[in-house]
Design a protein that fits this description.
Layout lengths: L4 H26 L2 H25 L5 H24 L6 H16 L5 H24 L6 H24 L6 H44 L4 E4 L5 E4 L1 H6 L2 H4 L5 H6 L9 H8 L3 E6 L5 E10 L6 E10 L1 H43 L5 H27 L7 E3 L1 H18 L3 E5 L7 E3 L1 H22 L8 E11 L2 E10 L6 H4 L19 H11 L3 E7 L3 E9 L4
Parallel strand pairs: 7-9
Antiparallel strand pairs: 1-2, 1-5, 3-4, 4-5, 6-8, 9-10, 10-12, 11-12
Length: 558
């Protein structure tokens, strides 16, 4: 035996064994059929070197060369089968038939001429390598450079294997031929490993893009929180909710949502990390919206471990606003029912007062009392009519009306409260202002909201019966961009609004009133009504001193 052959075979055996381990470990991780086929392919290829080395040590064992050729044929069959599996195809049956014919040939010529004995298995292996190379070259989804290098390496390996039985007979060329064959085999195997990693990375990137697209398509904010309460990932909905996530993606959740330097209490994320179960809390963001925050634990690698927490934010603002509107509608129906019930006895009181007055002498205390009873009953009837107008869910078209009349009707409804709390009302409403085209009851609702807020601010600042509780109401005709508008101002010297809260004052559910004193919907609803009428509602204030609310509405001729 040539002195170079044994070290070369041992080196090839070691290299083949490494490839077996690599392909086996990749199959254990990815469970791809072509990886299993190639692992068995290289295992049989390594066994060929084991049998060759054993045959060199025991020349009298005639079955060892035969077993080696069978292993080479089986390895070749698995090599091309792995190539077809790589492209998710099935190996044609002709390959199995060809392997059987070659095995029969080897059996027939064992113990005879070595060239005839070796040639079928080498040619079959060469054809398998060339076919595998062609299969890889046809894969357009593989990176072009890697595809061409690996495919042509397989083809060159196959051409070399076809010529090696002849080259091995030339002593000067045989060592270099063996070395070249070993290089081609390991280079081809390394190429398919790199292609596998490339395809795996491309697939992972594609799956990542798909998952990002799907998660960003979800309008609700989603956030992944790490054990240190830092934000690891967020979808587009979360970045719309908190734009700071674009510039500070790894910030703490409590810094982003609450602008705090320490964790919130309660904290659903911490609860989920501690318990391994879902948790929930309510969150009001800076823009005045209300959110239901639910946390869902992400299992870790170890049993019972929580590697992260997914936070799901559900906007509760529309639900709360719809609920509030439903309550207002129910209240309106109740008010209408009560007003109708009051209206009948009030009309009776008015009629009886008139009858009583007519039956008494024209002068005297009794007739004056009857007149006062009738007057107060008329005031009650006016309040009832305004209540009915306010409660009515009117879908009529807008109509031209005098804004002063709507405002005076609203004042009638709150006059008793203003008088009881000692509020001095200064009214400057010119009667010659042009009409505005509006839904009267909707604008009346706006005025009632504004008057109610002013009364609350005055009562918060001044004690009962204290002087200085002034409420000023005025209206004037102005012109903006050539369009006449009626401008109404409601000015009070109450608690005022902090400068930091002015921009949020008309956000839904934002309120500076104590808990239970306000819903945060009055100004929001009023702002929406005025905007729908083509008008503008603005607020000016100095905290602790005064507030001025200005309502601009276009004249009906506009």
């Amino acid at each position: 035996m040539n002195t170079w052959l044994i070290p070369s075979q041992i080196a090839s055996l070691c290299g083949s064994t490494v490839l077996v381990l690599v392909f086996a470990s990749l199959f254990a991780r990815d469970r791809k059929p072509h990886l299993a086929l190639w692992a068995w392919c290289w295992a049989l290829y390594a066994l060929c070197f084991v049998l060759a080395l054993t045959a060199g040590l025991f020349p009298e064992a005639s079955t060892l060369p035969l077993a080696r050729e069978f292993c080479l044929l089986a390895s070749s069959l698995l090599l091309v089968a792995g190539g077809y599996a790589f492209v998710e195809g099935r190996q044609p049956r002709i390959w199995t038939a060809g392997a059987l014919l070659c095995a029969i040939w080897v059996l027939l010529f064992r113990g005879g001429d070595s060239w005839l004995f070796l040639m079928p298995s080498y040619l079959f292996h060469a054809l398998a390598a060339i076919t595998t190379g062609i299969i890889i070259l046809r894969q357009i989804d593989v990176y072009p450079l890697g595809r061409h290098l690996t495919g042509w390496t397989f083809i060159l390996w196959g051409l070399h294997r076809a010529n090696y039985p002849l080259l091995s007979t030339i002593p000067e060329i045989a060592p270099w031929g063996f070395l070249l064959g070993a290089y081609f085999s390991f280079a081809a195997a390394g190429g398919v490993i790199l292609i596998h990693f490339s395809r795996t990375c491309d697939l992972a990137e594609e799956n990542h893009r798909l998952s990002q697209t799907l998660l960003n398509a979800i309008a609700d904010p989603l956030v992944l929180i790490g054990p240190d309460l830092r934000i690891r990932w967020s979808n587009q909905g979360a970045r719309h909710l908190a734009p700071a996530l674009e510039t500070l993606p790894e910030s703490h959740c409590f810094e982003t949502w609450r602008n705090r330097s320490h964790p919130c209490e309660p904290c659903p994320a911490r609860d989920s990390f501690a318990s391994g179960t879902a948790a929930a809390m309510h969150l009001d963001t800076k823009d005045g919206r209300a959110w239901e925050v639910r946390s869902f634990p992400v299992p870790g690698s170890a049993p019972g471990q929580v590697s992260g927490v997914i936070l799901h934010f559900e906007n509760q603002t529309p639900k709360k606003e719809n609920s509030r509107q439903a309550h207002l509608a129910a209240l309106g129906e109740l008010s209408a029912g009560v007003a109708h019930e009051i209206n009948n006895p009030i009309n009776g009181i008015i009629n009886y007062a008139e009858l009583l007055g007519d039956s008494l002498p024209k002068a005297g205390t009794e007739v004056d009392l009857a007149r006062r009873i009738g007057h107060e009953a008329e005031r009650i009837a006016t309040i009832v009519r305004n209540l009915l107008s306010f409660a009515r869910d009117s879908q009529d078209e807008k109509k031209p009306v005098l804004l002063c009349e709507i405002l005076l009707d609203a004042l009638v409804l709150v006059e008793t409260q203003l008088r009881r709390h000692g509020v001095e009302t200064l009214i400057d409403l010119p009667l010659d202002l042009p009409p505005v085209r509006v839904h009267p009851q909707q604008i009346q609702q706006v005025f009632l909201n504004l008057l109610s807020n002013a009364l609350f601010a005055l009562n918060e600042k001044f004690a009962a019966g204290a002087a200085g509780k002034h409420l000023e109401i005025s209206a004037v005709l102005v012109e903006e961009q050539g369009q006449p508008r009626v401008r109404t101002c409601i000015f009070d010297r109450g608690t005022g609004i902090a400068a930091a809260h002015l921009d949020k004052a008309m956000n839904p559910f934002f309120t500076t009133k104590p808990s239970g004193k306000g819903t945060g919907l009055g100004l929001s609803i009023s702002h929406g009504i005025v905007r729908d009428h083509g008008g503008r509602l603005t607020i000016e204030s100095s905290q602790g001193e005064w507030t001025r609310v200005t309502l601009d509405l276009p004249c009906s001729a506009c």
